[in-house]
């Protein structure tokens, strides 16, 4: 979705007056803006397509699921604060936009951090950085899964890293909130993180998608950051979909041929198995292996070290 609203400097009131400062990013489900309240505190505001309001049942689900997010707090999850409706103007018939106010994280997403590191140093992103970041992000994902909440869009771009190095999962459950099952061109950048059953379920409504789709996605992210993905995962969207659904064995072989430690290979292969029942039932299994096989040899590394490195690379 590509919003032209709201412009910089636009204000709205919701028990407080907020001013839009700048656009932080665009996604398939909405655009994210940095806003400020009267007291000078910053928030991230995700503004959704007004069509969400056209279906009363869908909007009710949006409010209910957002309320669940508001009641969740974890150091590795971006906290929701409240859902709001933003009017384009004071006119009674002005277009209204549903939005969510969330923590503003003064930092960068993992995708940007990785890209800048590899550009600057002309070498792969450090495996010990990847291990620590993902292990911490897994602890946030575990909290969601305990509450039976599927993230639904795990990717490096949805792992935010604060200036102190703390990784935080964002956008959790939003695809589910708005009932989005489409495979539009807007999603082409995130196709490689979709589990096979998520793709098949678009055509076959009888295919069940559960929390283990997140396990697959975090496995893809772990493989991408530690050993790299096969070239087919960066092809034309149609070819990416075909590879995910029909060539799982090739993906598993790619993991097996990597130089990763044997136990990390095993758990990533398990996460990426197209046979859902063979995947780990809990994200903690991957988290534990990340800590022991990679991070274990770098016990002096801290999140603050990662934050300092990021600030040097991405001012």
How would you describe this protein?
By secondary structure, the chain is an alpha+beta fold. It has 2 domains: 11-103, Phosphorylase Kinase, domain 1 (2-Layer Sandwich), CATH 3.30.200.20; 107-313, Orthogonal Bundle (Transferase(Phosphotransferase), domain 1), CATH 1.10.510.10. It is 39% helix and 17% strand. It has helices spanning 56-70, 110-121, 127-146, 174-177, 196-203, 212-226, 237-246, 248-256, 262-271, 284-293, 303-313, and strands at residues 11-13, 17-26, 30-37, 42-48, 80-87, 96-103, 107-109, 159-162, 167-169. The strands form 2 sheets. It has a 6-stranded antiparallel sheet with strand order 1-2-3-4-6-5, with helices on one face. A 3-stranded antiparallel sheet has the order 7-8-9. Helix 6 (212-226) crosses helix 9 and helix 9 packs antiparallel against helix 10 (284-293). The protein is globular and about 60 Å long. The two termini are 28 Å apart. 38% of the residues are buried. Residues 177-189 have low confidence and may be disordered.
Topology summary:
Elements: E1 11-13, E2 17-26, E3 30-37, E4 42-48, H1 56-70, E5 80-87, E6 96-103, E7 107-109, H2 110-121, H3 127-146, E8 159-162, E9 167-169, H4 174-177, H5 196-203, H6 212-226, H7 237-246, H8 248-256, H9 262-271, H10 284-293, H11 303-313
Antiparallel strand pairs: 1-2, 2-3, 3-4, 4-6, 5-6, 7-8, 8-9
Helix pairs in contact: 3-6, 3-10, 5-7, 6-9, 7-8, 9-10
């Amino acid at each position: 979705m590509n919003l032209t609203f709201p412009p910089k400097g636009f204000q709205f009131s919701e028990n407080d007056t907020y001013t839009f400062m700048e656009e932080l990013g665009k996604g398939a489900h909405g655009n994210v803006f940095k806003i400020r309240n009267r007291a000078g505190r910053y928030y991230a505001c995700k503004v959704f397509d007004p069509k969400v309001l056209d279906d009363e049942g869908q909007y009710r689900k949006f409010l209910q699921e957002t309320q669940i997010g508001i009641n969740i707090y974890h150091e590795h999850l971006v906290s929701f604060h409240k859902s709001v409706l933003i009017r384009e103007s004071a006119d009674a018939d002005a277009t209204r936009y549903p939005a969510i106010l969330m923590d503003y994280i003064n930092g960068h997403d993992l995708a940007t951090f990785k890209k800048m590191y590899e550009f600057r140093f002309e070498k792969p992103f450090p495996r010990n950085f990847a291990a620590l970041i993902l292990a911490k992000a897994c602890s946030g994902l575990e909290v969601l899964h305990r509450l039976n909440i599927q993230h639904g869009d795990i990717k490096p771009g949805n792992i935010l890293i604060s200036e102190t190095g703390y990784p935080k999962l964002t956008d959790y459950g939003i695809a589910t909130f708005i009932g989005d099952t489409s495979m539009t061109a807007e999603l082409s950048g995130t196709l490689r993180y979709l589990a096979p059953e998520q793709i098949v379920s678009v055509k076959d409504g009888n295919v069940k998608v559960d929390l283990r789709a997140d396990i697959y996605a975090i496995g893809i992210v772990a493989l991408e950051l530690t050993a790299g993905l096969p070239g087919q995962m960066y092809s034309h969207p149609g070819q990416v979909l075909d590879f995910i659904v029909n060539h799982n064995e090739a993906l598993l072989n790619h993991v097996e041929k990597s130089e990763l430690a044997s136990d990390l290979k095993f758990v990533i292969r398990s996460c990426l198995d197209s046979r859902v029942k063979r995947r780990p039932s809990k994200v903690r299994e991957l988290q534990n292996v990340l800590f022991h096989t990679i991070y274990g040899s770098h016990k002096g590394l801290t999140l603050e070290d990662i934050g300092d490195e990021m600030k040097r690379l991405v001012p």
